[in-house]
Amino acid sequence: MVEGATAGNVADCRLVAECLAMDDAAWQRCLGTYRAMCRIIACTHNLAHEFDDLFSIFIVKLLGSAEGKPGVLTRYTGQVALKTYLSVVFHHIVIDWHRAAQRRPLHVQDNQLH
Description:
By secondary structure, the protein is mainly α. It has helices at residues 10-20, 24-44, 51-63, 82-103.
């Protein structure tokens, strides 16, 4: 068991360890399990149409960057349920998406002004 992990989160810690070991079956279980949760969060924030992009960012956050930045799974300690941990990660992605959208200029065509 991971130091600091609760007894109820042992299976979560095992799944994370398998994902970090790049076990394909573990990744499929992880993404399959939490994809629906992420879709619900995206829909709650009126971003259903952006879900594929958001989920792609989520996967990169889990894995880490090609530049060697570690993924968020490396920081999972088991003190909370993996579902809770990953929902917070996805919420942060959604917040960042909204902030970026506020900075993007709005493009309006001339025929939409009348």
